[in-house]
Amino acid sequence: MLTAYRAFCTMAAMKGRVTECLLAEQRRFIVWVPVCLALGIAWYFSLSYEPAALPGVWVPLAVILSGWVLMWRGWLNVWCRLSGGVCASVAAGFMAAWSAGHAHTPMPELPRRATEITAVVRHVSDMQRDGHYIRSVELAEARFDTFYDDGMPPLQRIIRLKLREDDPVVLAAGDQVRVKALLLPPPFPSFPGGRDMQREFWFADVAGTGRALRQTERLGHSSVSLLHEGEAIQVLRVAWSARIRAALPGSAGAVAATLLVGESGSIPSVVREQFAAAGLAHILSVAGLHLGLVMMVLFWLSRFALVLLERAALYWPCKAIAACIALAGGGAYAVITGLHVPVMRSLIMASVAVAGLCLGRRVMSMRGLALAAAILLVWHPEFLLTAAFQMSFMAVMALIAGYEVLGPELSAYRARYVSNNLARIGHRLAGHGMALCITSLLAGLSALPVVMAHFGEIQPYFLIANLIVVPLMAVWIMPWGLVTFVLLPFHLEGLALVPMGWGIKLTMLIARVVASWPAAHMTFSGMPVRGLCLVLLGLCWLCLWRQRWRLLGCLPLCVGLLSSLFVAKPDILISPDGGMVGVRSGSALWLGGQAHDAAWVSRAWRQQLAVSAVHSFPQQGEGAGGRLICGEDSGPGVCVLMAHDKAILIDLRSAANSAQLTAAACGGMDVIISAAPLRGNCPDVPVRLDRFTAWRQGAQTIFIGFHTLRVRSGRDAQGKRPWVMAPGGHGLPDLPLAPSE
């Protein structure tokens, strides 16, 4: 009894302390609403099945109402407010994700043969890869010239089509075209738990991809207006991008087109890799940094122009007017660059900041960030799963929280009186340098776990590169970019693009130099989803609270960062079509066979496993440290892998070249992997994986241990969701309705 009484007293004391902390932090409860929304959205996407309307809408709606009633009736009790708000927010996030998932049309069944397509061009983009320009288009309202599609309504999803290199037709948004193409459905994940392109295509209203087999025929401009899809803005973006790259040729012009109109496809892959290795990849992605610089320049120019007018300076609210002008210019810049997720977040926060400035409230606050996050999560719940959303909000949250702690000390240092003029200049430069270091360090470190989880890499020299490039962007590149916008209507953009190109070339030089340093690009094995969730929750706990208990967020943060060290790596990987097999051997990956998307699949495998080298299966002989033997008893294309106490037979021969495997070849094998259908071959082998298995289950991974063997398939990881296509990538057939009686 005494022990129970002591335990009860201890629990009561702990509850009292937690209640005191919550009462001290009650003004920060509201900033946790987007976190709870994100938990509900993540809960929906983590399910292995699709909930019906009752658990998807009506049950969350009942929970929301119950949560509101609990908060209303127990408003004076901090625990009632907290529990009611958490339940209502999580249920609202789950319901928003379910509604967004069911707001899209089913995936259609695309023709599996070369087909004539008549469609309307929605978007045109250029991409430079390996010195070649690749032109692709997005086609809307597509109609297929097949006998069973005759008379059917146009496709409600868009198709992404890569054009031929020798296609001379100049296309623009709104053009009606006819082209013969080979179409493909959205690909399955390259390994179980990998990037789900089917889910991304589902929410992007994309039906599939393809490549043109002959030159495009332009039929004229579509009579159906696509203004609701941004036709006029797209035409303007393409025209301005071409003029910018004509006035500033080369890679510098491609970077300038990215910064000014958001057309990043023409940047060479070498330049992209150098920027990424130097920790400057955010420079090539229009985000809050670019919008903030544009608005800052517009704000100071507008305010300076207003104070030159005596009446305006004396009687007008010049600061608020300048802020509104900067917001309008920033909104126009966000629209012309494509309204990407980081830009939308920055624009919402900028709107809140301008409203606060006009009302005399704080400009940058955690509540403004929470409002922007809540709006985006309710509007597009799928944004939560993207690296852009996570990096953007984590970086800004860390900046706001960091300056809440370090801001007073930095302001006190800047306000320190220095009598000597030369020393005063150095003091000001030191203050700006400290602010820049703090900003780069907070933003870089907070985004680092997201980069590790999504891309499996880190850039240790990001602080050095950003200390030089960010001020260069602020004082030289983006101001000349604004001048370019002013001169574009007069076809005088070259006067501003030339000096802007000087800054861009210097930025490219810095990226090239930093990327050449030792260990500038370090790779890590993929962080599991649970580890990333722990990291993000730990960062939120560390940044959103103000009391000392915020330091408890370091525990899940560290556990999440270390989670990748305790994740088992697969020993064998099989591509989604069953044609390519990968064998992990230490820090190397051995590949054999052929897959439809071999380059994309092998790149995803290499990133997930963090291997340093990739080799091909030997035609005849040994590989993988002697564990892999190919081309001996059963001829070329047949290999035997010895892993722990298991023997695996790998038959890489295609269906046309495959032959009956002998009983001697199958004898003693624990697993057989075949790129062709096995049918009656090796019936006594315990685990048989062939092309039919891949057709039904998607990509597969095999984990081999002593006396253990586990196979995981991509379909098990995806579950049964609306965006998961039928085996073989088949969608809903486009069949005519039955005639009415």
Automatic annotation (TrEMBL):
Alphabetic keyword roster: Cell membrane, Membrane, Transmembrane, Transmembrane helix
Annotated transmembrane regions: 29-46, 52-71, 78-98, 275-301, 313-336, 342-359, 364-381, 387-406, 434-455, 461-488, 495-515, 527-544, 551-568
Domain ComEC/Rec2-related protein stretches: 259-548
Pfam families: Competence
Subcellular location: Cell membrane
Location of the region described as Disordered in the Swiss-Prot/TrEMBL record: 718-741
Keyword ATP-binding attributed: no
Membrane topology type: Multi-pass membrane protein
The protein's name: ComEC/Rec2 family competence protein
The species this protein was found in: Acetobacter thailandicus
